[in-house]
Design a protein that fits this description.
Elements lengths: L12 H13 L3 E3 L2 H10 L12 E3 H8 L9 H4 L4 H9 L9 H7 L3 H25 L1 E4 L2 E4 L17
């Protein structure tokens, strides 16, 4: 597979199959909260997609782990405050455009430009944040510097014995 950047998929069944195929063929899939949100949505399941287990690089889970929080179990009391917007503002001085709840509304209203702009801004922010974490091994969140190691979701299993 070639590294095609900015490839757009439509909402046809064929494009959904193509997107899934491309994700399965990818060497690495990086995103923010993709393990428990984006990938299950793409596959139409409430559960994580195990075929992507060894190649999924979820920046949010890396931040949680670096903050000594269990990345596999979410509790708002302990894991809250790490939204993409909050971490990007604190680390990069950059904000999201709107809120995630806006995206379905843009889609329903066929506001393709707004939907595309919203999504591409999130992609750009995630890329910038991942690049910062890679180069500096930290992000800023909840008023402090959070260490960020590089790992894939498939490596979390060995961490189950750790005291979070």
């Amino acid at each position: 597979m070639t590294r095609e950047r900015g490839k757009l998929y439509d909402d046809t069944a064929q494009d959904l199959r193509s997107l899934r195929h491309d994700l399965l063929a990818a060497r690495r899939i990086t995103g923010y909260n993709i393990w428990k949100f984006d990938l299950p949505v793409i596959w139409g399941t409430p559960n994580p997609v195990m075929q992507l287990y060894d190649k999924c690089d979820d920046l949010l889970q890396r931040i949680w782990a670096g903050s000594r929080l269990n990345p596999t179990v979410y509790s708002r009391a302990t894991h809250g405050g790490f939204s993409l917007d909050a971490v990007c503002v604190a680390t990069l001085g950059e904000k999201k455009i709107g809120h995630g709840a806006d995206a379905p509304e843009h889609y329903k209203q066929k506001r393709w430009g707004k939907l595309f702009t919203y999504c591409m801004r999130d992609v750009w922010l995630t890329y910038q944040l991942a690049d910062h974490a890679k180069n500096h091994n930290y992000v800023n969140a909840r008023g402090r510097r959070c260490h960020v190691d590089e790992f894939f979701i498939g490596q979390i299993e060995s961490w189950q014995d750790q005291k979070w």
